[in-house]
Amino acid sequence: MVDPPADDAAEPRPRGRRARGQDTRRAIVDAARTEFLEHGYSAASMRAVARRAGVDPALVRYWFPQGRSALFAATLTDTGIDPGRIAASVASGPVETMGPRLVAAILAAWERPDAQETMALLLRTIATGLDVPAAIRDYLMREVFARVRPAVSGPDADLRINLAMSHVVGLMVARYLVRLEPLASAPAAQVVAEVGPVLQRYFTPDACPDACPDAVPDDAPDG
């Protein structure tokens, strides 16, 4: 493994610069999270992250040679809020209850006191649409979609998973960003009870509970 570049490799080192090592990496990730939250993914530069962390840009490139996409992923996983882990845990259980379990797992992750900034960062980046680069879409496809996909079978499985994920994103935006009432203050258990069966219809349409809506309303327009 190549040694990390010295702190003075890219520019003179001011006093008080952090020692290299895991403390440096942690400082970079914390600084990146703040930069992404304040300025969005596209406007947050690696140099700005380095300046906020108090390290040389060369150290940011050393720890994250793949650039901003890898740094963005680290802002999620380094706090223990790993979308891939959540998806894998949900997908490993019975598919017949995956809808309610998915909603419950996402709400539990979001409502952890130490997770607010991390989840807001992920959601804002996704919700802005144009600010989501291909690298982040690939990350979500690889870490979330790909872990759920094997559990879902039948025609149009990919489309149904996409629809379920879009429903989840909409729920999170309304509850946590827009804070639409009474959804924003509704107990998590009530949200799971209301939304879980709807998502379940996407995962197991042939075994949809009676409470689920019809797949296609009688008065739906053609096409």
Low-pLDDT segments: 1-19, 213-223
What integer value in Å does the Rg equal? 21 Å
Distance between the termini: 57 Å
Query: What is the total number of structural domains?
Result: 2
Number of strands: 0
Which percent bin holds the helix content? Answer: 55-70%
Q: What is the overall number of helices?
A: 10
- The percentage of residues in β strands lies in under 5%
Describe this structure in words.
60% of the residues lie in helices and 0% in strands. By secondary structure, the chain is mainly alpha-helical. The protein folds into two domains: 19-78, Homeodomain-like (Arc Repressor Mutant, subunit A), CATH 1.10.10.60; 79-207, Tetracycline Repressor, domain 2 (Orthogonal Bundle), CATH 1.10.357.10. Residues 1-19 and 213-223 have low confidence and may be disordered.
Question: Could you outline the blueprint of secondary structure elements for this entry?
Answer:
Blueprint: H1 22-43, H2 46-53, H3 57-63, H4 68-77, H5 83-91, H6 98-110, H7 116-127, H8 134-148, H9 157-177, H10 188-203
Helix pairs in contact: 1-2, 1-4, 1-7, 2-3, 5-6, 5-8, 6-10, 7-9
Brief write-up:
This protein has helices at residues 22-43, 46-53, 57-63, 68-77, 83-91, 98-110, 116-127, 134-148, 157-177, 188-203. With 223 residues, the chain is mainly α.
Structure keywords:
Tetracycline Repressor, domain 2, 2 domains, elongated, disordered N terminus, Arc Repressor Mutant, subunit A, 10 helices, 0% strand, single chain
